[in-house]
Every structure is written in C-alpha cells, then in structure tokens.
Amino acid sequence: MEWEAKTGGRRTAGVWEGVNTSNRTHKCSHCDYITANMNDLSKHISIQHSGAKPYSCTYCSYRTTRNNLLKEHINTHTGERPFACPYCSYSSSHRNILKRHIRTHTGERPYTCTLCPYRAASKTNLNSHLFMHKKKEGMLGKQAQ
C-alpha cells in the first residue's frame, strides 16, 4: 500500500498499472510521439495513424478521433455555449474559438511572420499576411524579367 501511494500506481488483476517502473520509453514508428506506457502508444497509433474516427455525431455525419471534439461539435447542434469569456459576456460552443476571442481583450499575438516583424492573433490572419508577401515576391519576379 505504501508503494502504491508513493507512485500513483494501481493494482489490477495482480499487475501494477499506470507506473513505469522500468524507465523504458516506447516511441511511435510513424511520428515523434514517445510514452512510458505501451497501452498509450497503442491507443495513439490506432487513433492518430489508422484513420479511424470512433466518435460520431448523432445529429449529422461528423466523425472524429477524440471524444472532447465530438462534445464541442454537438454544441453547434444544441446551441449550448459552455465556454465563457472572463472579460465580457461572450460565450462560445468551442474552446478554441473562445481562446481566439480572449486575444481581443489581452492583445496576445502568438503567430509570428518569419519574413518581417508582423505578429497575428490568429493563424488565419498570419496566413493572409504571408500571402501578401508571396504576392509581392511574384510582382518583384515579373519586374526583374
């Protein structure tokens, strides 16, 4: 019992689970994912690399690899908006949309252009900005000819 309390492991059918006592890690053969638990690696491979989408919406044909994404998707059908802004009365059906909204209050701009000092609050804005660089580059190339 003392060992269990110190390590956070649990005993199931005579086997300790949830504790990596060998300090061995398991690496995915498809990507850089590494874990100490072989069950986690198996789950990762089946979800991330098999193309399987075990969670499906009861309202439409949407399918996904993760249960929390399905729950957020279902909010679009039910109208539920459980993600509330701490700065104003705005609420959203999706956590990532709320996160983007909060940046309007905080001024955070986490997306940086690699070609100039421009910073954006969303990937979409950064991609639009990068397209402007690409257009300029194309115009410069035509003028040089």
From TrEMBL:
Cellular localization per UniProt: Nucleus
Keywords: DNA-binding, Metal-binding, Nucleus, Repeat, Transcription, Transcription regulation, Zinc, Zinc-finger
SUPFAM superfamilies per record: beta-beta-alpha zinc fingers
Domain C2H2-type as annotated: residue spans: 26-54, 55-82, 83-110, 111-138
One Gene Ontology cellular component annotation held by this UniProt entry: nucleus
Keyword Transcription: yes
InterPro entries xref list: Snail/Krueppel_Znf, Znf_C2H2_sf, Znf_C2H2_type
GO molecular function: DNA-binding transcription factor activity, RNA polymerase II-specific; RNA polymerase II cis-regulatory region sequence-specific DNA binding; zinc ion binding
A Pfam entry, by short name: zf-H2C2_5
Coiled coil: none
Top-level taxon of origin: Eukaryota
Entry's family note: Belongs to the krueppel C2H2-type zinc-finger protein family.
The protein's name in its UniProt record: C2H2-type domain-containing protein
